[in-house]
Predict the structure.
Amino acid sequence: MMKKTLLKVLSMFSGLLIVLKYMFKKPVTISYPEKKRKLPLRSRGRHYLTKWEDNKERCVGCELCAIVCPSQAIYVKPAQNNPEDPNSHGERYASDFQINMLRCIFCGYCEEACPTGAIILGNEYELSGYDRESLIYTKDMLTEKFPGESGRDPKREI
Amino acid sequence: MLADVIEIIVKGLVLALLLLGAGAYLTLLERIFLAWFQLRIGPNRVGPWGLLQPIADGIKLISKERFQPLGVNKFAYWLAPGISLFIALFVFSVIPFGDNVHLFGREISLRIADINVAIVFLLAFSSLAVYGIVLAGWASNDRYSLLGGLRGTAQMISYEIPMGLSVLTIILATGSLSFTDIVNAQRDHWFVWTNPVSFIIYVMTAFAETNRSPFDLPEAEHELTGGYHTEYGGLKFSIFFLSEYINILAVSSIAITLFLGGWLGPWDIPVLWFLVKLFLFVFLFVWVRATMPRFRYNQLMSFGWKVLVPIATINLIITAYFTMVR
């Protein structure tokens, strides 16, 4: 009986020593603005409208992304491609493409639904703004400036 | 004569201001140590290594609304935080920080008052500390505050008996009640080696007296419902908060003076060793808070009455036997 209580008291002291051991381990905190965590490649961040290798946009204005979006955050206005100066490889292209970042839930359904692999979700997550209008991303903000800017391989099929 | 008065006033002012600052920075130290125990970093954004954090907390608390709930007993409600802070600070008036030093051409003793019944004085004043809690709980016109205050009071009162009994063994060992004599009697060996059981009992009751983990049910009740400082906000709450941390410093100082040799150390440098031992005690308080879950109220009371009081009494009897035989 005395031995059991003595063992219980000693276990309290060993508990104290275990906690002391944790003091000398390296903390797991990442000091955020100075150091950032490297995200996995599949992380879903900011959208990009990618292009083929020959600088033509992949988006054919099919509006599948707008249909599948659960929060109805995408607005696509399709238009007929000019045969002398086509914007994309098909007959249509998206003349107006807006994503409301405040409605987007970054689920990645648009990336899965796109038949040409146009819209992809990159790794950038620091997307804040000072008013609501600045967070409705237009087609210029979304399209990559040169093929491969978003990090995806422009030679891929989808 | 006038020089004496000025000396005491200056010493008192310096001590009070230093203690208030130390109480505030103790909150930062606790947050940093707790974070290290939990594999994270403490606050480090406000100033370099978070050194301006207590100032930021103070500004936040001061700028809050100053309110008084309906139906409170005005006198007791506004007096209670003041009592807590006053008692916490007043305890330091008898603690010796060192011997006599020569400053400004006078011999200044590094304590505010050297009374020859210091231990009785201290036990009396630590009993007064419960007034802050019970008045706060009762005056708040709130059933949860009342219950929290009553529980805290009962806990503090019932843990004063083992505290007094363990302090009695030190009095037996030295034969004197004055702190100066007790510190001087430890020049050969500290009392923690000859009376280890008293030391352990004293440390446990010190945790209970300051309402710290694992005995912090009056403090944790405000995570559940009430607790004696529910109806206090802003500056009044910060006074309670500060008095709790100064209380930690106070019981640590008493433990150091009684058991760990006061300000004595290699080369007897007056204040330095006291601060080193105080730092170790504060570390112990935070370490125990990081480790142990809190007692339930009935476990707490039965531990105090059924375990600590018998052990303290038996310890006292054995110490008295050894004192008489030797």
About this structure: The first strand of chain B starts at residue 100 and ends at 103. Strands of chain B lie at 100-103, 106-109. Residues 2-37 of chain B form the longest helix (36 residues).
